[in-house]
Design brief:
Blueprint: H1 3-20, H2 25-33, H3 38-50, H4 57-70, H5 72-88, H6 96-101, H7 103-119, H8 123-137, E1 139-141, E2 146-147, E3 152-153, E4 159-161, E5 166-167, E6 172-173, E7 178-180, E8 192-193, E9 198-199, E10 204-206, E11 210-211, E12 216-217, E13 222-223, E14 231-234, E15 239-243, H9 248-251
Parallel strand pairs: 1-4, 2-5, 3-6, 4-7, 5-8, 6-9, 7-10, 8-11, 9-12, 10-13, 12-14
Antiparallel strand pairs: 14-15
Helix pairs in contact: 1-2, 3-4, 4-5, 5-7, 7-8
Length: 259
């Protein structure tokens, strides 16, 4: 499916929703139907979410549109994320809902813009966005963290992602997950989450440790050491409890038995 067909599908669903629910028509018009592309709509929505009187939404929208215009990879990552959300989330029946309403998706897209700003020397603006994402969406993602594409933040309430964290492609994280440090040490101090990992709700992963490819971390676990690829860990502290033979981020299977 091309970028155009994704936007066409979103636009079609927005038109249908506005017609079916007239009370939402003005909102849908402003958020989707007034725009010519996915990138324009996304920029407008993020600006609306994170604007305030001394940082007007119009100023943010202009900044975001300029970033998207010159760096297509920033918004195409957002396309990959929305596809991942649609494919994995049992509560998601179309692309319109995550674009308009899923705060995990919106927090991730806010991070993506903040990361671009951080890596291009605009650190104060990046930290402003981090603060607003935390305040408005209750997800705290440091703009220096490195996050791949096709990532799902399901619910995302209470999510914490530290400064030197790495999250590779096709990862799924649930609410109240912490990817944090172990103290006041500086330098590279946060987890590295490899391709295909599933981290269930409430898991705490602390320190510069590696969660191997297609591993699974059980809900409420505390992980303090490396997790081998294709294994399932659970407990406090977490220990290996089984294999993870499939790609758990895609299956969204939170059980602890082998896939």
């Amino acid at each position: 499916m091309t970028s155009l067909s994704l936007w066409a599908e979103i636009f079609r669903d927005a038109e249908a929703a506005a017609k079916k629910e007239p009370a939402m028509a003005a909102f849908i018009q402003a958020m989707v139907l007034d725009h010519d592309s996915f990138a324009q709509a996304l920029a407008f929505q993020l600006a609306t979410e994170f604007g305030q009187p001394r940082m007007p939404a119009d100023t943010l929208n202009k900044t975001f549109c300029e970033i998207y215009a010159d760096n297509a990879n920033v918004w195409t990552a957002g396309e990959a994320d929305i596809r991942a959300t649609r494919a994995r989330d049992a509560a998601c029946n179309d692309y319109l809902a995550p674009l308009l309403f899923f705060k995990g998706y919106r927090a991730l897209q806010g991070y993506r813009v903040a990361h671009w700003l951080w890596t291009h020397g605009h650190k104060v603006t990046a930290l402003y966005l981090q603060s607003m994402i935390s305040a408005r969406l209750n997800a705290d993602i440091h703009p220096a963290a490195r996050i791949g594409e096709g990532v799902t933040l399901d619910h995302a309430t209470g999510l914490v992602v530290g400064e030197t964290c790495v999250i590779e492609n096709e990862v799924s994280l649930f609410q109240d997950v912490t990817l944090g440090g172990t103290g006041k040490e500086g330098g590279d101090r946060h987890p590295k989450v490899r391709h295909g990992v599933l981290i269930s709700s409430g898991a705490k992963i602390l320190g510069n440790i590696e969660i191997g490819e297609s591993a699974k971390v059980g809900a409420g676990s505390v992980v303090l050491k490396d997790v081998p690829a294709h294994t399932t860990v659970a407990g406090v502290p977490a220990v290996v409890v089984g294999a993870s033979l499939d790609t758990p981020a895609l299956t969204m299977d939170h059980t602890l038995e082998a896939d």
